[in-house]
Amino acid sequence: MTAATNAQTIERFYSAFAKLDAATMQACYASDAVFDDEAFSLRGRREVGGMWRMLSEATKAKGADVWRLTWRDAKADDTTGSAHWDAHYRFSATGRIVDNSVDARFTFTPDGLIATHRDTFPFWTWSRQALGTPGLLLGWTPVLRKKVRATAAANLANYLARQP
Predict the structure, then answer these.
(1) Considering the domain 3-161, what is its CATH architecture?
(2) Which of 4, 48, 70, 164 is buried most deeply by CB count within 10 Å?
């Protein structure tokens, strides 16, 4: 596909994300897609889409009143892409408001689907907002990162086990 197709995939993805439309987000990924960020390491459209469904449902249930997503600097060539996005949301586990600033990098399949997606953000900044004092005191440590990743993985596994 062309750079334009890949750029359209990025735009489609973030337009859906802004609306918490997890089904459209999932459809942007290849069946064997890989997703990584500070909380998740996922393999396959089922896991990646499951994560977006789980997070979207939690936001709709506990934080739709404050949800806001904006993105900028979306660009792509024939095989790669990137974007910056900012999310304002209520972290469902604590009810705390988070403003997260994220840089995304993508690779694409020949048919314009996301093959790999890597989101990066300052974990300590996120943990201070999402977790409060524990995040402030321990957010820079590998211990808290490991705990957040383990909790996220367990939550997703439980969520996926309940899906048809």
Answers:
(1) Roll (3.10)
(2) 48
